[in-house]
Design brief:
The complex is a heterodimer of chains A (about 270) and B (about 240).
Chain A (H helix, E strand, L loop, with lengths): L2 H4 L4 E14 L8 E14 L3 E5 L6 H9 L6 E6 L2 E2 H7 L1 H7 E4 L13 H6 L7 H14 L16 H13 L5 E5 L7 H18 L2 E6 L2 H7 L2 E6 L2 E7 H6 L4 H9 L5
Parallel strand pairs in A: 3-8, 3-9, 6-7, 7-8
Antiparallel strand pairs in A: 1-2, 1-4, 4-5, 9-10
Helix pairs in contact in A: 3-4, 6-7
Chain B lengths: L2 E14 L2 E14 L3 E6 L5 H9 L7 E10 L6 E4 L3 H4 L6 H8 L5 H8 L4 H4 L10 H14 L4 E5 L7 H16 L3 E6 L2 H4 L5 E6 L2 E7 L2 H4 L4 H9 L8
Parallel strand pairs in B: 3-7, 3-8, 5-6, 6-7
Antiparallel strand pairs in B: 1-2, 1-4, 8-9
Classes of the chains: A alpha/beta (about 270), B alpha/beta (about 240).
Chain lengths: ~270, ~240
């Protein structure tokens, strides 16, 4: 990658030769085979950019998200965050890292604590701040995702799927992150709600200048929001580039197949 | 054109405790032989409930017909069902061959049908069990099962929503081939683009009611109702602008 082209942009994440393998046990006593969920990935993610990660089931999208968010440790290779080893940051000061990198999960029906009202869900990550600051951040985040203030008293069961996902996004935003990882944030939602969430994310990206990694199996959906596309197949990064170049002249046959699979519309 | 079924002022519901909750209705529509009809709606629209009632399976899901009329012009033996989740639809304890032969009236047709759905038999074999198959292969087995019934109508309830996009394109291609042999299709889906180039007519449903119905692609071009318009506009398109 050419460094000078980007100039003022800083490197946020740098992955060199990163692999994550799982062992699949076939019998009780056998050691089983190694399965590479993420296979020698080299990748640079920059501040404030909007990345789209596309791949089908089993391609390693969620594992990569877990690696970046620090939930999963790589079996091989090095991940750096702002030129510091991620492994060291997580050991030294995990909270500082969590403030900077937040994640929104696939299923809003599972990712919110059902016993807590929205206020407590949003408050959880910023408990160490002063009361006034916390209130301000919570109200700001709720406003950003387009929910009215009375929603703070509600519990997740009183919310629809789209509203839940908005709360999940607000929970990430109260931390005022630099980078937001969204793992299939709309795959559990209806199409009309999906369009609303994508519009919201676009608007947030423009107003907050927060970096995004939008993960989805739907290339058309990803193209709505991302500027840079990453295509994953069987754990390998098969294509990477600007949206225009990937869609108009895909280099990998797999990307071409993905493009051909999009139902003709309109 | 001969009709397959006709629905008049049909209202369907579910028993929840002592109450009956209405899920669909009243709806009116019909389907002709060899026709391909798309039933489009979001979750909770009542599309699956309606599909189950046409198949005569609603009572098994604690549902019931509240009022109205469903007139069938073909026997239910001439209908086949392709369910949404291929992983849940096959019995894990029986081999693929056993399950296919159970469906077939004439077991000599099994291999012919498997060829038609392009299941690589040399690779998997009839003795394999569902867990050895991928999602796309399982869905092909289910399509083969449906074809073995020699149906006049296939009701496919979200047949591709648990599959990858590349597989989805393959399965839709297969459906198009099957439809050319004169079998009518009722495609229940939340993905509007799937009905394009496949269905001749579409019905849009929302919270149990029919919002709009009409011929394709005219409905896509000028939808009359606001909800239909929202649905059509919500479909993500490949976007090149930054």
């Amino acid at each position: 990658m050419k460094e000078d082209l980007w100039g003022d942009h800083d490197i946020l994440f740098q992955l060199s030769g990163v692999s994550k393998s799982y062992r699949i046990r076939q019998g009780i006593f056998e050691r089983g085979k190694e399965f590479n969920a993420v296979d020698h990935v080299n990748l640079i993610l920059r501040c404030g950019q909007c990345y789209g990660l596309v791949g089908e089931s089993g391609s390693g999208k969620t594992t990569l998200a877990g690696l970046l968010a620090g939930f999963i440790e790589p079996t091989d290779g090095i991940i750096t965050f702002q030129n510091d080893l991620l492994r060291k940051i997580l050991k030294r000061d995990p909270l500082r890292f969590r403030r900077k990198v937040q994640m929104v999960f696939q299923n809003p029906y599972l990712s919110l604590e059902p016993r807590w009202p929205v206020r407590k869900i949003l408050d959880e990550g910023i408990r160490d701040l002063g009361a006034g600051d916390r209130n301000m951040r919570i109200e700001k985040a709720l406003g950003l995702v387009g929910l009215p203030l009375p929603y703070l008293k509600r519990k997740p069961q009183e919310l629809s799927g789209g509203e839940r996902q908005r709360v999940a996004i607000a929970r990430a935003l109260v931390m005022e992150p630099e980078f937001l990882i969204l793992d299939e944030p709309t795959s559990q939602l209806d199409v009309s709600i999906q369009a609303q969430i994508v519009a919201l994310l676009k608007q947030l990206q423009a107003s907050l200048q927060v970096g995004l990694l939008f993960i989805s199996h739907d290339l058309a959906l990803v193209s709505q929001i991302a500027e840079e596309l990453l295509v994953f197949n069987q754990g390998k990064l098969v294509e990477q580039g600007s949206k225009r170049s990937v869609i108009l002249s895909p280099a990998s046959p797999y990307t071409r197949r993905l493009l051909d699979s999009i139902p003709e519309w309109p | 054109m001969k009709k397959i079924f006709e629905i008049q002022k049909l209202e369907l519901g579910y028993r929840i405790g002592k109450q009956i909750v209405k899920a669909v209705g009243p709806v009116d529509f019909d389907m002709a032989e060899g026709e391909c009809l798309g039933l489009i709606g979001e979750s909770g629209a009542g599309k699956s409930t309606l599909a189950l009632e046409i198949l005569g399976l609603l009572q098994w899901k604690a549902g019931l017909r509240i009022s109205g009329d469903l007139r069938l012009y073909i026997s239910r033996n001439e209908m086949a069902y392709i369910p949404q989740d291929p992983h849940a639809a096959l019995d894990p304890l029986f081999s693929i061959g056993d399950q296919l032969r159970e469906m077939a009236r004439d077991s000599s047709r099994v291999e012919k049908v498997l060829e038609k759905v392009r299941l690589p038999l040399d690779k998997i074999g009839l003795k394999s069990y569902p867990h050895e198959l991928s999602g796309g292969m399982k869905q092909r087995v289910l399509i083969a099962m449906a074809l073995l019934r020699q149906p006049k109508l296939i009701v496919a309830d979200e047949p591709t929503s648990s599959l990858d996009v590349t597989l989805q394109a393959e399965i839709m291609g297969l459906f198009r081939e099957i439809q050319r042999s004169g079998i009518a299709f009722l495609l229940v889906t939340h993905q509007v683009p799937l009905t394009k180039n496949f269905c001749q007519r579409a019905i849009f449903m929302r919270s149990g009611a029919v919002v709009e119905q009409g011929l394709l692609p005219e409905v896509f071009k000028n939808p009359k109702e606001a909800y239909t318009k929202t649905l059509i506009e919500s479909v993500p398109r490949l976007c090149l602008d930054p």
